[in-house]
Amino acid sequence: MKEVDMNSAMREGMRRLASGVSVISTKTAAGARFAMTATSVTSLSAEPASLLVCINRNTSMYEAVKDGGAFCVNVLRFDQQEISNKCASGDQGEERFEVGDWQETADLPYLEGSLAVFVCDQEQAIDYGTHRILIGAIKRVLVDDGDTIDPLVYLDGGYKTL
Ligand SMILES: Cc1cc2nc3c(=O)[nH]c(=O)nc-3n(C[C@H](O)[C@H](O)[C@H](O)COP(=O)(O)O)c2cc1C
Known about the structure:
CATH superfamily: Electron Transport, Fmn-binding Protein, Chain A
Bound molecules: flavin mononucleotide
Mean pLDDT: 97
Number of helices: 3
Low-confidence stretches: none
Number of strands: 12
CATH class: Mainly Beta
Radius of gyration: 16 Å
Strand content: over 45%
Number of domains: 1
Largest sheet: 7 strands, antiparallel
Order of helices and strands: HEEEEEHEHEEEEEE
CATH architecture: Roll
Structural class: mainly beta
Distance between the termini: 40 Å
């Protein structure tokens, strides 16, 4: 018998899990803006309106939100792959805002033209392993009012749409 290596088994399994791609964005009290690509966004409950997102504690986003700051979840559309790449790249801080129509609401940066924007207060944070799970209390929702919902989906190590 041979034991299956958990790291590669996990990778193989997760390649088959389709996820919508979002960008988390925030601004610190000192006015520094941060944005990070994330697929770990999950709807939590309708009452209270809430979601969760998992953030690696090695990321610059973690540093920006670790003290409880508010954040936006920007749900990307298929034609926003460049923004997804930018916000997961070696570019840092303000450089990540060079692509996309970034606007501001409630003193937070958000992506105009994304499929949906959830403006969240940070309600709770739970550390697990390498990550911090942020629970966001949704304060405002902006939605694209076009006819088609064409999400950016991440599956099998690449971008897809429905
Ligand atoms: C499609 C995709 C999904 C990602 N999802 C997450 C996620 O849910 N949580 C996370 O911490 N990092 C996620 N990442 C990795 C971060 O975007 C990336 O490591 C981060 O931008 C690097 O952060 P830093 O350079 O600002 O420290 C994802 C990357 C990609 C390309």
